[in-house]
Write a structure and sequence with these properties.
CATH topology: 434 Repressor (Amino-terminal Domain)
CATH architecture: Orthogonal Bundle
Radius of gyration: 12 Å
Strand order of the largest sheet: 1-2
Number of domains: 1
Order of helices and strands: EHHHHHE
Pfam families: HTH_26
Oligomer: single chain
Number of strands: 2
CATH class: Mainly Alpha
Distance between the termini: 13 Å
GO molecular function, one term: DNA binding
Structural class: mainly alpha
InterPro entries: Cro/C1-type_HTH, Lambda_DNA-bd_dom_sf
CATH superfamily: lambda repressor-like DNA-binding domains
Helix content: 40-55%
Protein name: Helix-turn-helix transcriptional regulator
Shape: globular
Largest sheet: 2 strands, antiparallel
Strand content: 5-15%
Length: 72
C-alpha cells in the first residue's frame, strides 16, 4: 500500500484514546478503527480536519506516502 495511515502513532504521541477521539469528532469507534488500520478507500476532508483539530496535528502527521517496491 502506498499510503500509510499513522493515526495510531499520533494517538500514542498525544496519549489519546480512540474512543475519546471518535466521540469528539462524531464518528463511530468502528469507523475510526477502519481508518487506523488503513482499510478505507478514502477519508472526508471534514473528518481529517476534525482529527487534526482534536490531535493538534497536520494531515501529513497522519498520512505517509511509502512507494511500492514493485513499480508497475
Amino acid at each position: 500500500m502506498a499510503i500509510v495511515v499513522r493515526l495510531d502513532v499520533m494517538l500514542a504521541l498525544r496519549k489519546a484514546r480512540s474512543k475519546d477521539l471518535a466521540e469528539a469528532i462524531g464518528i463511530t469507534e468502528a469507523n475510526l478503527s477502519l481508518l487506523k488500520s488503513g482499510k478505507v478507500k478514502g477519508v472526508r476532508f471534514t473528518t481529517l480536519e476534525a482529527i487534526c483539530q482534536q490531535l493538534d496535528c497536520q494531515p501529513g502527521d497522519l498520512l505517509e506516502y511509502v512507494p511500492d517496491d514493485n513499480p508497475a
